[in-house]
Amino acid sequence: MTQQTAGIHHITAFVRDAQANVDFYAGVLGLRLVKKTINFDAPEVYHLYFGDEMGSPGTIITFFPWANSRKGRIGGGQVGITSYVVPVGSRSFWEERLTKFAVPFTKVERFGETYLQFEDRDGLQLEIVEREEGKLSTWAFGGVPVDKAIKGFGGAVLYSTAPTKTAHLLEHVMGLARIGQEGAYARYRSTADIGNVIDVNVTPMAYGAGGAGTVHHIAWRAKDDAEHALWRSHVEQSGYHPTPIVDRQYFNAIYFREEGGILFEIATDPPGFARDEQPGALGEKLMLPSWYEEHRQQIEANLPPIQVRVLEGDEQ
């Protein structure tokens, strides 16, 4: 069976403070909070989704804010760096913006591209890179105009404990093309125009430890439910152990851990985030799955209040 994912669907991480998380990803980075819901397995915790105007696949970063969680350690078996892509010519804007909000950054070169690397308030490693490909964002917020706004993911840097096996999976199971190797990384590319560039360490890396400031999993795209079912069979026939299909309300999901220790998910593009809210109102109300609706009052009372707000310095 030949299968080929278009690229990254979403990336999910752990943080501590919910409001600080909103202030950074909406306030500083200018992303839209497209869904405010709960961790279906731990309803005392938010599940917050940030992306482009509609939360399109390839733009979505999601968070579980656990106020008293331990600090994680980034290392093998994780997404080490989450890459964002911005329009060509906008890097200086982002340098100035990160400086204005006291976010230290460094410039690094990789495969002929210049990256601004920085951390969010919990230490999650991020980077911004300019590329022509990918349509411009239609979402502007605070001090981030549409012509400078993040388009979505540029891709990710995977930290593998067994990079040869991770590389084999990316190429021969997930269907990415190997581009080449430069220094410490090998590069792979999928077919979409965002969320499509994956770099993998070529030397085995020691395991990290999960917790605030680390990625929990990376999700890959399946175009619909029919293809998703094929993906599950394909992954299982390739020697991995996928979960049953799980309904996540806004997509269906399967999960499996690859041999380099990274938790992979395959998620369907539909139905998307407008299935239970109007497009103009995404992220404004706490949305609960039907089986939790009767507990809404208790759930809301246990969650800290959050708001999307224009940060001081962006106010006119």
TrEMBL record:
Domain of life: Bacteria
Keywords: Dioxygenase, Oxidoreductase
Keyword Oxidoreductase: yes
SUPFAM superfamilies (UniProt xref): Glyoxalase/Bleomycin resistance protein/Dihydroxybiphenyl dioxygenase (SSF54593)
InterPro entries reported for this sequence: Extradiol_RC_dioxygenase, Glyas_Bleomycin-R_OHBP_Dase, Glyas_Fos-R_dOase_dom, VOC_core
VOC domain sequence ranges: 7-131, 152-269
Pfam families on file: Glyoxalase (PF00903)
Entry's Gene Ontology molecular function annotations: dioxygenase activity
CDD domains, sorted: PcpA_C_like (cd08347), PcpA_N_like (cd08346)
PANTHER family (alphabetical): RING-CLEAVING DIOXYGENASE MHQE-RELATED
Designated name of the protein: Ring-cleaving dioxygenase
Organism: Paenibacillus aestuarii
